[in-house]
Amino acid sequence: SRGAKQVQSIDKHPTSIKHMYKVKAELEAENWQINRADVFKFLEKTPQKFNLIFADPPFGIKGVEQLPDLIFEKQLLAEDGELIIEHGRETNFEHEANFRDVRNYGGVKFSFFS
Q1: Closest Cα to residue 68, out of 37, 29, 102, 34?
Q2: Across the chain, how many H-helices and E-strands are there?
Q3: pTM passes above 0.85
Q4: Cα–Cα distance, 21 to 13 (Å, whole number)
Q5: CA 13, CA 51: separation in Å to the nearest integer?
Q6: Residues with Cβ within 8 Å of residue 8, at least 6 apart in sequence
Q7: What phi and psi, each to the nearest 5 degrees, are found at residue 68?
């Protein structure tokens, strides 16, 4: 909706997938690709590079702390790309390589990497 040439969503929860398809139809968003998959397996296999990766995993999900390392090891960000991870207070990414900033909004944090 803000000029993105392509949007790709990854989720394994059937209700979330169903909701995304509903919204995609309502918005007539032809450039939105929806994938039902485990995000960790998807990241391991995808050959794509992304300008922006916004991760909004369920709070407390096992393995969320591995996302930055996995994304940077696989070189999934395009040059000047950005990774944003939404997470709860119990998760701290400030020690990670490529960490740039964290912003707090109530009980939610957004960690930025580049």
Answers
A1: 102
A2: 3, 6
A3: yes
A4: 13
A5: 25
A6: 32, 33, 34, 35, 48, 50
A7: -60, -45
Q: How far apart are CA 114 and CA 100, in angstroms?
A: 7
Indicate the SS3 state at residue 3.
Answer: coil
pLDDT in the model for residue 64: 87
Is residue 14 a contact partner of residue 36, using CB atoms and an 8 Å limit? yes
Q: Which amino acid appears at position 69 of this protein?
A: D
10-residue mean pLDDT series, the chain (114 residues) = 83 96 94 94 94 88 89 94 93 90 93 95
Q: CA end-to-end span of the chain, whole Å? A: 23
| Tokens linked to 64 | 């969320």
User: Which string of DSSP letters, residue by residue, matches 21-47?
Assistant: HHHHHHHT-TTEEEEES-HHHHHHH--
Q: What is the pLDDT of residue 2?
A: 63
Position 35: which residue type? Answer: N
